[in-house]
Model the fold of this input.
Amino acid sequence: MLAVYIPCKDKKEAAHIAEKLLNQKLIACANIFPSTSMYIWQGKKEESSEFVIFGKSVSEKFPLIQKEVRRLHSYDCPCITAWNIDFADQEYEKWVKESLVDGNRK
Done:
């Protein structure tokens, strides 16, 4: 199982991207939550409010997730990161995997 982390400029963008990823069965689930980001951009310290997509998927879907997020995201250089989940409830992990197979979602 894979955890995917994608900060977005606002809640509307996060919901739009999450919905597209869900509809394409690239993620099984998305949580969207507010966040404050601090970073250096073009040599200047910045701070901004964002909304983060925390999605659950599988590693083989990551290249397609990355491609779709780049297509939809408003940032020049969006953060699209993921890490393997080593421990998860077996039933939940099974549900995630089954949710990403064609024919399992309407």
About this structure: The radius of gyration is 14 Å. The first strand starts at residue 2 and ends at 8. The chain has a mean pLDDT of 96.
